[in-house]
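2024-03-11 09:14:02 INFO worker-7 job=invfold-0412 stage=load source=structure_tokens
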């Protein structure tokens, strides 16, 4: 993920600053989910493995800490002037490039042998991306417009 964050941009660890269904509904209806979330820059974490890591953050999302290798991590706050976040076209070309980058990152790793048969079964680049993100990186979905 760090390599893709550096080469393609627009990759973040993101989590809501709310936790109830009522808060989710309120933020959704008022179009404030973006502002009510914390955005962490992956290359700011210096995580270089696929192990599970814990990141905690304060209630307003201004500070976050990585606990597996204790350190404060970089926070990103999207705003209207952030073209990369607001204007990135996530279409077939982007998904194809992401699929290629993720597939290349698995070459000669334990995940290559473990998941290559699953990845080869997928018919589309999006299915390949979802399989790699879900099986290797434990990311359960990818947002598309």
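2024-03-11 09:14:09 INFO worker-7 stage=emit residues=145
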């Amino acid at each position: 993920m760090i390599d893709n964050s550096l080469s393609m941009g627009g990759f973040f660890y993101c989590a809501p600053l709310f936790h109830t269904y009522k808060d989710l509904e309120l933020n959704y209806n008022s179009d404030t989910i973006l502002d009510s979330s914390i955005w962490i820059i992956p290359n700011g974490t210096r995580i270089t493995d696929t192990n599970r890591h814990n990141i905690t953050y304060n209630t307003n999302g201004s500070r976050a800490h990585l606990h597996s290798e204790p350190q404060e991590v970089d926070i990103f706050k999207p705003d209207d002037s952030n073209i990369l976040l607001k204007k990135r076209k996530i279409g077939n070309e982007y998904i194809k490039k992401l699929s290629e980058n993720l597939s290349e990152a698995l070459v000669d790793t334990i995940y290559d042998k473990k998941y290559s048969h699953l990845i080869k079964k997928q018919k589309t680049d999006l299915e390949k991306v979802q399989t790699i993100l879900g099986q290797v990186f434990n990311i359960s979905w990818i947002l598309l417009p």
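2024-03-11 09:14:09 INFO worker-7 stage=report msg="The two ends are 21 Å apart (CA to CA)."
2024-03-11 09:14:10 INFO worker-7 job finished
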